[in-house]
């Protein structure tokens, strides 16, 4: 990843059941990462994700594409509920 770029991720919050977007800041505690929780349970549109990132002070990098991966609540348990995590490359937004 290029200098000055970060990874933004989005997943459903275990506590609220709503989609939560956060920017991973390496070297910082996850409680310090900028985050935004969307209203409702529908998957947020790309435009809604962009607006949320802007509110957090970030923007998509040029050519950024969202990727989705599957995880599980309980590692290595095929019967465990699936968790979908989306990620995209972002940069700090300019003035």
Percent helix range: 10-25%
Calculate Rg over CA atoms. 14 Å
Arithmetic mean of pLDDT: 92
Number of strands: 6
Q: What is the chain-wise order of helices and strands? A: EEEHEEE
Percentage of residues in strands: 35-45%
* CA(first)-CA(last) distance: 23 Å
Quick one: biggest sheet? 6 strands, antiparallel
| Overall geometric form | globular
Provide a descriptive summary of the structure in words:
With 95 residues, the chain is mainly beta. Helix content is 11%, strand content 39%. Strands 1, 2, 3, 4, 5 and 6 form a six-stranded antiparallel beta sheet that branches. A hairpin with a 6-residue loop joins strand 1 and strand 2. It is globular and about 45 Å long. The model has no long low-confidence stretch (mean pLDDT 92).
């Amino acid at each position: 990843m290029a200098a000055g770029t970060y990874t933004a991720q989005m997943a459903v919050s275990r506590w609220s059941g709503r989609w939560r977007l956060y920017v991973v800041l390496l070297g910082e505690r996850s409680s310090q990462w900028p985050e935004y929780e969307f209203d409702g349970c529908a998957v947020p549109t790309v435009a809604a994700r962009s607006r949320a990132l802007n509110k957090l002070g970030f923007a998509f990098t040029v050519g950024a594409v969202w990727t989705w991966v599957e995880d599980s609540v309980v590692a290595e348990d095929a019967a465990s509920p699936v968790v979908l995590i989306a990620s995209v490359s972002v940069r700090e937004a300019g003035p």
